[in-house]
Design a protein that fits this description.
Helices cover 46% and strands 10% of the residues. It is α+β, with helices and mostly antiparallel strands. The structure holds glutamic acid.
Amino acid sequence: MQHILDKALRQGRSVTGLGEVASYIPELSKADKNHVGVCVMDSVGGCFEAGDAEERFTIQSISKVVSLAVALELYGMEAVFGQIGMEPSGDAFNSIVKLAGDASRPYNPMVNSGAIAVASFIAPELTFDEMLERTREMCGDPDIVLNEAVYHSEMATTSRNRAISYLLESKGVLRCGVDEALELYIKMCSLNVTARSLAYLGLLLANGGIRLQDGKQLLQPETVRVVKSIMHTCGMYDGSGEFAVRVGVPTKSGVGGGLLSVVNKRMGIGIFGPSLDKKGNSIAGEKILQFLSAQMKLHVFD
Ligand code: GLU
């Protein structure tokens, strides 16, 4: 495994020059686009790392997976999907087009509109500190903290998400005020994780919500099934379809350069690589996953 991972890392590193780091959140533009790290945790207790797997970066959209899981645990599937759709949008993650038109609800919980709606479900029930605790537990990482610089940088430049939030409010989708929903959403995006914390979360999901280390059921099986299905169909922005065909591993990306992947019953994979392709996905991360999927037959339909 270590040998395969080292090889995958080299492949990933070879393409970092083809992308760019995110800059629409000013603080994210400070990332070094040549950094790449990968961590694999498997269902028999193995943990393998290569490259910058312990470097901290903000989780960004991958927090949508954590928040969706928590909302499902709090309210159940019917209530959550009564307000938010389950369909891939085919639009960019921050698109406003369909919502400004006649869509009565967000397309899915992995685009910004859906995730802001999910945050509005959670905010009346749990504080940010409680969400932080849950994230630490699901990622097996007590060192996750709020990256204040990224949080303030996004808050100062988040007009588009604010516009989305007001549209959601106008359509009766929000369960709390715009400011409350937006604050929780952006704080969750600004949590500092590592490739290793994402691999741990991936393994938790691969293992049906049961923590491998002590057998504790942290998430209900139905929650985990729903989350993995949504990751598979909607996790890679408007590149989700092609990724599902070519790689076939349920994955969620974030503009901080993270990728969270779940190989059902077998392993969790976490990747960090802040150089992004045009759709906002880690360019090294996609290359690494393509390689690992082919080498180890990880495609969901292999
Ligand atoms: N906080 C980012 C935003 O709302 C998350 C985007 C992403 O990672 O896709 O724009």
